[in-house]
Amino acid sequence: MEIKKVYGELNPYSAQKAQENQRVQQEQSAKGGANAQQAGDKVALSSEARLLATAMGTASTASDSRADKVRELKEQVQAGTYKPDIRKAAANLLRDEVSLTS
């Protein structure tokens, strides 16, 4: 069944509901504007976040950040000329394993 040319609202309360929603939105925007001018936004950071921000700031300003060393190693890996010291890597792995178990 197909209905054509429906005139008017099917729900007689829809216009009233739309007006009520518009009024509530206007009241909220008026209250929100006044509150924003008085209080403003606030941000609270945890102590861990402040510590992390301090550490990141210190690390980024440190002169020994090793960025040149990292860049050099990346270039060696890409060129295929990087030759790591296998004995040193194994010793470091064993050292780390011992420190984890104690």
Overall description:
There is one protein chain. By secondary structure, the chain is mainly alpha-helical. It has a domain at 66-102. It has 4 helices and no strands.
Order of helices and strands: HHHH
- Determine the N-to-C terminus distance: 80 Å
Strand content: under 5%
User: So what's the overall shape?
Assistant: elongated
Structural class: mainly alpha
Number of strands: 0
Average pLDDT score: 79
Low-confidence stretches: none
Helix count from the secondary structure assignment = 4
Oligomer: single chain
Radius of gyration: 33 Å
Task: State the major sheet.
Answer: none
What distinguishing features does this structure have?
102 residues; mainly alpha
Short description:
Helix content is 68%, strand content 0%.
Topology summary:
Blueprint: H1 14-38, H2 47-61, H3 67-79, H4 86-101
